[in-house]
């Protein structure tokens, strides 16, 4: 178990999928958890209710990661509600699949805004509220290192960007005792990438372990990185992909 008693965490995009699993796991380890959503208020409220029913503390905040002011507001609201931040998990992310000839520039801008600019804005504000022992964890993707099919170039680019950002921020923040890491999942069964979706068989065919992963499996890796035990791990991109990139 990762002992997070007394810690304060913010998980972006915590209403569904991997983010909801992370929020619940961090709360189970003892952290007070704020989670953001963009349009899924009912689902976000349900995650809060689940955490509270298990004896934890949680808060849902509407904050579009594409809007830097909203992201900054969510960090400040978390600190007001629970105290200064210990753990930031940049999980909110969006995808759009199309080859270069079909890819709209507006979608390029949206993916960069949420997956990269939103992460930068969140970290910048969060570290103003974070002391020694702080943890910044971003959910990247296996696609940062190996792209299993066409139509994923822009998504992969955004996830490669956060891997690079992670390495650089680890250098910036190491002297303050704050670690910065990147978790790179392979296919995880969520609304973004359902295990029975159009690309599921193609994804499965590339895996060493021939099944989709679960949000709980990703959350376990995040819980380790958030824990005091992981204090010497920083600047790392840890892949959890059923062997896709092996
Ligand atoms: P889902 O689409 O299932 O859930 C996305 C979550 O992010 C929801 O809580 C959603 O909120 C929130 N969100 C989406 N856009 C925004 C935004 N603009 N601002 C704030 N919150 C937002 O995604 P997954 O759980 O599958 O993915 C989570 C992360 O993991 C992403 O970064 C994704 O790129 C990454 N990932 C996923 C993989 C997979 O196979 N599933 C593989 C590799 C990486 P709301 O309910 O309000 O829409």
Automatic annotation (TrEMBL):
It holds the Pfam family adh_short_C2. SMART domains: PKS_KR. One of its GO terms (molecular function) is oxidoreductase activity. It comes from the Bacteria. The keyword Oxidoreductase applies. Keywords: Oxidoreductase. Residues 7-186 form the Ketoreductase domain. The keyword Oxidoreductase applies. SUPFAM superfamilies: NAD(P)-binding Rossmann-fold domains. InterPro entries: KR_dom (IPR057326), NAD(P)-bd_dom_sf (IPR036291), SDR_fam (IPR002347). Belongs to the short-chain dehydrogenases/reductases (SDR) family. This is Oxidoreductase, short chain dehydrogenase/reductase family.
